[in-house]
Amino acid sequence: MEILAIIPARGGSKGIKRKNIKPILNKPLVAYTIETCLNSKYITRTIVSSEDSEILEVSKKFGAETMIRPLELAQDETKTAPVMIDVVEKLQKENYFPDYVVLMQPTCPLRDADYTDKAFEFYFENLKNGYDSCFSAFDIGFTHSKWRILHNNKLEALYDFRNRPRRQEIDEHYRMIGENGAFYALPTKTMLEVKDFIGYNPIAYITPRVIDIDTPEDFVRVEEILKNANN
């Protein structure tokens, strides 16, 4: 069984300059995900996609294969799925047809090979139950009264709070989860059909929250966690 890991690592990140090769404990961020893929017992091939020559060189140094990403797929508004499809279609021209594709974002350095392999095992066990894809998530809890915080801190109600029912009158509570960005797996065929990294009928691999680095504060938090782990 061939499982292709794709690590999308753009050079032009805006929030944190040169984020994907910014060092954490003297090792570039992307290296943590590369090592996770190479140490996984299920991933058979690991490719970093980037338009940035320095990221490609660093990725090779840590053992990944690399693929030059077209500039039109390296813009601020570029989504991840087209980048993955670009990699897969180029590999198909080389007569390589992986059975599954897994998106491994380089911004989750605390996700290791053990986490990844357990996610795969959970996914494979549930394929027989009709699920076609899997993503990792954290548990928010049970709720009926749902609100969303917008970028300007404005609140948007996702239920009719003006006609709020009493707790005893609520027939259904929803268990809320959030994608944590650490793991997305699906059959290659499904990815090419839906043009996305989540399939028709996904299942969530729920774990404690994994930090997906997005801010300078996230870098500091992750570095402290890794220091404590090393000690």
Mean pLDDT: 92
The share of residues in helices is 25-40%
- At the first level of CATH, the class is Alpha Beta
CATH topology name:
Spore Coat Polysaccharide Biosynthesis Protein SpsA, Chain A
This entry's quaternary arrangement is: single chain
The gyration radius over C-alpha positions equals 19 Å
* Span between termini: 38 Å
Q: Largest sheet at a glance?
A: 7 strands, mixed
Q: Looking at this structure, what is the CATH superfamily? A: Spore Coat Polysaccharide Biosynthesis Protein SpsA, Chain A
Give an account of the 3D structure.
- By secondary structure, the chain is of the alpha/beta class.
- The chain has a single domain, classed as Spore Coat Polysaccharide Biosynthesis Protein SpsA, Chain A (Alpha-Beta Complex), CATH 3.90.550.
- The chain is built from six helices and eleven strands.
- The chain has helices at 29-39, 53-61, 80-93, 113-127, 188-194, 216-230, and strands at residues 3-8, 23-24, 27-28, 45-50, 65-68, 100-103, 133-143, 147-149, 155-157, 174-187, 202-206.
- A seven-stranded mixed β-sheet has the order 5-4-1-6-10-7-11, with helices on both faces. Strands 2-3 form a two-stranded antiparallel sheet.
- The radius of gyration is 19 Å and the shape is globular.
- The two termini are 38 Å apart.
- The model has no long low-confidence stretch (mean pLDDT 92).
Summarize the model shown.
With 231 residues, this protein is of the alpha/beta class. The protein has six helices and eleven strands.
